[in-house]
Structure formats: C-alpha cells, structure tokens
Amino acid sequence: MKEERCLQAALLCLGVLCYSHGLATERPSRARPSLHGHRDRGKEGQVLHRSKRGWVWNQFFVIEEYTGPDPVLVGRLHSDIDSGDGNIKYILSGEGAGIIFVIDDKSGNIHATKTLDREERAQYTLTAQAVDRNTNRPLEPPSEFIVKVQDINDNPPEFLHENYHANVPERSNVGTSVIQVTASDADDPTYGNSAKLVYSILEGQPYFSVEAQTGIIRTALPNMDREAKEEYHVVIQAKDMGGHMGGLSGTTKVTITLTDVNDNPPKFPQSVYQMSVSEAAVPGEEVGRVKAKDPDIGENGLVAYSIIDGDGMDMFEITTDYETQEGVVKLKKTLDYETKKSYSLKVEAANVHIDPKFISNGPFKDTVTVKIAVEDADEPPVFLKPSYIFEVQENAASGTVVGKVHAKDPDAANSAIRYSIDRHTDLERYFVINAEDGNIKTIKALDREEMAWHNISVFAVEVHKQHQEAKVPVAIKVVDVNDNAPKFAATYEAFVCENARSNQQFITISADDKDDSANGPRFIFSLPPEIIHNPNFTLRDNRDNTASVLVRREGFSRQKQDLYLLPIVISDGGVPPLSSTNTLSIRVCGCDGSGSLLSCNAEAYVLNAGLSTGALIAILACIVILLVIVVLFVTLKRQKKEPLIVFEEEDVRENIITYDDEGGGEEDTEAFDIATLQNPDGINGFIPRKDIKPEYQYLPRPGLRPTPNSVDVDDFINTRIQEADNDPTAPPYDSIQIYGYEGRGSVAGSLSSLESATTDSDLDYDYLQNWGPRFKKLADLYGSKDTFDDDS
C-alpha cells in the first residue's frame, strides 16, 4: 500500500507540472484581449474593418484530489482593453464562484480553493466579466467558460457482489463456463486507463481460470470428481490501469460446487450374506436386508434390487426400500424345515438412472450371493384337508356318524392328536366328536327346514403341547326327507257372485312345501272323496302346481247362505308322498251386470228397506250439532254465576274476610297444632261450637247483616263474629277464633291490628288524608273525629 500511495503522489506531481507547462504554452493564444479593431486596406485602397473579439476562451482544466498547500491555479482572464493601470476589475460568477473558485480582480487569475472530486462533479460552468473599477460599468459583455475536473486514478475497482456461488457438473470438459463476475471503476473511462480493468485469478488454480477481459470463470482441469472434492473456493482480482503496475485493484470470492453425475456404479461391501428364517414364518415376513453402496447422490444414487438366480427364487422375493437404499428379502411362500433346510439366492443391485455420457464407466450394477438357512420350529398339527364337507339326513337318529376329520403333527416327533368342536360354532350342541379318531356324530335329530347347513369348527391339539393347535372348518349339509305336507301358499279369501254362471272360474290357488324341491312339487289338487260330487263348486288341477275353483251351479243367494267352506286335498311329489286337507272359504257377494263386486254383507237388503246411508249421515250430523249447542249453553251459564263472596271496591267491610291466619312467635314450635290455635276461652271450659261440618245447611238471619251504608266497624265485626259462632258450616271453621290470640315469645311483638289499640285516641290516622283518592275510604273510616264530623 505504501508503494502504491508513493507512486500515486508522484504521478499527481508529474500531472501538475505538465498541466502548468501546458498553461504556459497555451496562455498567449487563449487570452490576447483587445477592445480595438484592426484596419486593413485592400488592394484597391478600400479600407476594411475587422472587429476583434475581446475574449479568447479555451476550456480550463484542474486536477482532482489536489492536496497542495496553496490554491491551485486554474487559469487567467485578460481583456485587450486592460492597460495594466488597475482601472479594470474582473468579476467571476456561476457554479462554485466565490466558494470553490476565486478570481484576482486585478490580474484575472482564477484559483481553486478546495479539493475537487471528479466522481462527485465532472465540470463547472462559470461567467467572467470586466467592469470599470470605479463605476462598475461593464467594459465587455459577460462571457461563459467551463472548468473541467481532470480525472486521476483514485477509485479501485469494485465487484457487484462480495461473494458469488456457482455450480458446475463434475467431470466437465476443460473450458466449461462456470460463472461471470463483473467489477466496475468509478474513474473516467474516457481519460487514460484509470477505468480499464483486467481480471486475474489469485486462488483456485489449477482447477479454474478466468478470462482477463470478460471475467468469465472456466474449468481448467478435466475429470474433477465430486466424490473426491465437492467444493472449491476461488478468489478473483480486478485491476485498473490495464493491469499495469500502480493500478488499483479489488477482489471477490467465488464458491464453486461440483454437482453430481452418475459416474459410479453400486458396489456390495461383501460377496456373501448369511440369513436365517423360521419355518413358522408367514409369507410377507422380512428375512433380512442387503445394501449396495453408491457414492453418487440423489437420483444418481438410486439402486433397485432383484433376484436373478438361485433355488429360492420361488420361495423368496426382494423389494427396494428407497429411504435406506436397502434390498429387503421377504418370504414368498410357506417353508417346511423337514422338506428343505436351506436356500441360495443371487441378488443384483443396479442403478435406476444411467447417464449415457458415462456408459463407458459401467456396468452400473453389482451382484451378491444370499444364503438363507431354514430353522426348525414346533409347528401345530396340520389337517389333511383345508376344509371338510359332510352330509347327514334330517331326522337321523342320535349317534349317527356324520364324517371324520384327520390331522397330524408335521414335526419329527409326530405327537398324538386330540380333537374337539368349537362350541361357539355349535351352540345348540347338535354334534359331538371323538377326541381320539376325529369321528363326528349327531347328538339329536336335525331338521332341514329349520337349518339346512351347519358350519362348525374342529380343533386339533397335540397331546403333550396344548398350546399347539390347528383349526379347520367343517360344513355339514342336512339332506332333506319328505316330512312336510304341502299347504296353501297364502290365506285365500274367495268371492262368488250371486249371479255367477255355471263353470265360471272365480279363484286360482297354489301350494307351498317346506321340503326340498325333490320332495315338493309337483303338487296334485283334488276334492275329498266324500264331496267329490259337490253340488256347488268343482276343482280343476292346472298341472302347473296351481288349481282353479269353478262354480258348478247358478243362483246363489246371500239371504239363504252367504258363506261356503270347501275342503281341498293337496299332495306333493315326494317319496312317499304326503298330503294335507286345506279349507277354502267362499263368500257370496252381490255383483253388477259386468261381474264387478258390490257388497258381500247380508244386511245390505235391510238398509235399502229403511234409511239410506246419506240419511243416516244427516241424522248423525244433526245430533252432533245439538250436542255442541247444549255444551256451549251450559258453559255460558256457569260463567255468568255470581261468586259466593263479592269483593266490591266500595264495600270495604267485606275485606275483613281476606285476613290470613297468624301463627305464634319463634318459640311456637306447634304453629299448626289445632289445639294451640283454639280460642283461649276454651281453656276455661267455654266452647262455643265444635269444629265439624254440620249435617244441615245453615241459613243466616237477615236481621243480623248491617246496612250497606253503615260505617260502624265495631258493629260490622260483632255481627260477623256472631254469624260465625252460630254457623258451623262457614269455612274455615276455626280461623275466626285466632284473631284475639297471639303467640308467646315473639321478639318482633304482635303484628295484628285487632288488639294494637284500646281506644280511638291511641292511633292517629290523619296522614291517610295525604295519600290520595285511593285511600279516601280508609281516611273516612279511621280519620279523626273532627274530620269525620266535617264529612258528615
């Protein structure tokens, strides 16, 4: 860094010297001002006047980043009319005038007082003018000029990113493009080589290279292997000044990762795998696993397993576990140790996806030998058949042999076997089995019509190893015998018209037999021999398991006989045949001329002679309406009855009836005892009446009732007490006696108003006058005497 800074300072000084020399050589041609014109004569003596410009301008230049002790001289302004006597004053205005750029108003020298940075501002536009120093009168029109900031190499190159990440497939050819990195330089690209960049690689050789002009990184070595090294760190440098000495530089880091290709075949780590499996294993059970290693990753490392040879190809299979990349050997069929004790398999592992570019690296597969030993197991008994089917006739006697099952011990010990029936499959206990030989017999008679098949299960266990058992299904078919006579297929109701013609068919019947088809149809229909010449009906067998019933005569009458019972004999086709007699009910009905049924009731004639159906409906409707009217009338009458006790708002005296009974105080634990609630006068032996409902009805005496307009409350109460004492029917029978009785021990004292005052002067009810019209009647009754006199 010190060497670069020294070199930079030297170049800066050299530039300043060159620039000063250039100004010295250019100044005479740049500003030779003259405010007077030259006169030239032509060839013919004509005077020609040529007007000269007062200013001669060129662009001024100043080097950026100048750090000298004195202000740097930018240039000098001079007017032709300036005679040097100091009467002309130079004025500078515009961008940065007076701040960055100052002018000597006498000499016209322009200096830069501050350090300039071209990257911040490349040029400044200024305006110069010469004026009279005393009067400030412009002597020349203002003129505009430009000061350009001359660039120096003061900015190093910078990359767009500090770190780059790139991928390239492994084993790529030399020169394969990986990534392009780009740097930029803030210096002026049009001036010198300050912004001319050159790229080079500092770290990452010999694997990668970079193009000096473009920054493209390429592979430099062939057959780079991801499995050997997956990630590389490369450092790229960008240097200005065309890469020459003294130029500034910047670097960036590039992380390059080799992506995987399928360039490695799978390999088994060993040549032989040893496995074992019990002969008791069920198909689908896992025997063992093998794994071939493939250093590739992703889909390039996927391996599929298969069995390509061996004596166990039919007994075993292999599947691929793609999560662990293992081959899973599974049992395909049941094994038998006594038959074969070992198997050998040849297993192949092959890549699923193969890249054609690397097919020459193949073959992308490997093989291994798998040896499987079968282990002996204590096996349960084995029945000779997977299932049994037996037949037995229904109604067979108890103890009839149905069939025999047989099982054996497959082990070398060949243990003895015991048999039993699973009672969950024979809940009714129809069968029993001999535990020694496996013979199945019936215990009770079987009925095919109740259950045609019996499905039971038979267990076989070793005598000395009860935990080893086998189970086999046994289906027992109950063979049918002809033990059910045929019957009517349905409950028939036959109807014959009174006007039916002779030999007219009016019903077809069929039969049903619970026995099997061999002992059922075909059915034969006939009449019993004793009525084969029935005068009313005849039977015709249709020979298709049906029969037709016909009318033998004409002129049936419901009045004479409305129901006929016809016995019919039905025989089946079993050996020996069975028959039954079934009765057909035939009802005589009235029909119209076309034979359509009208009525089958004998009472229909009686109805025609009396009232019609419409008349009966009308009569019933009238009766219902009358009943409704009576009910409404009674209801209205009940609602209009006067209540027994009239509570008129104006008749305050009647309100005495609404007082509730009052019990004793807190010490009264027998508040509902009738003896306690009796009048205390009864203790002295005086009992005015008995509290029982009398046998006669009491009629109150009219003379005892006070006049309606009377306001004497004492008379009113005395009259009520006398009526109650003489009227044992007035309910409640005992409530009037408790008004003068108060319980003892009450903390609150008496709540009754009957004995709260002895004279009218004890209480003052004048405040009732202020309670409004609703309490006017009470105020009249209980107000002061003076108030009462005033009202009267």
Gyration radius from CA atoms, angstroms = 68 Å
On the 0 to 100 scale, the average pLDDT is: 78
Number of strands: 43
Strand coverage percent: 25-35%
Low-pLDDT sequence parts:
1-56, 604-609, 644-655, 671-679, 681-687, 689-699, 735-741, 756-761, 787-792
Function: Cadherins are calcium-dependent cell adhesion proteins.
GO molecular function: beta-catenin binding; cadherin binding; calcium ion binding
GO biological process, one term: adherens junction organization
Pfam families: CADH_Y-type_LIR, Cadherin
Explain what you see.
Keywords: Calcium, Cell adhesion, Cell membrane, Cleavage on pair of basic residues, Glycoprotein, Membrane, Metal-binding, Repeat, Signal, Transmembrane, Transmembrane helix. GO terms for molecular function: beta-catenin binding; cadherin binding; calcium ion binding. It is a single-pass type I membrane protein. The chain is mainly beta and 792 residues long. Helices cover 12% and strands 32% of the residues. The strands form 13 sheets. Strands 36, 38, 41, 42 and 43 form a 5-stranded mixed β-sheet that branches. It has a 4-stranded mixed β-sheet with strand order 3-9-8-5. The two termini are 135 Å apart. The N terminus and C terminus are likely disordered.
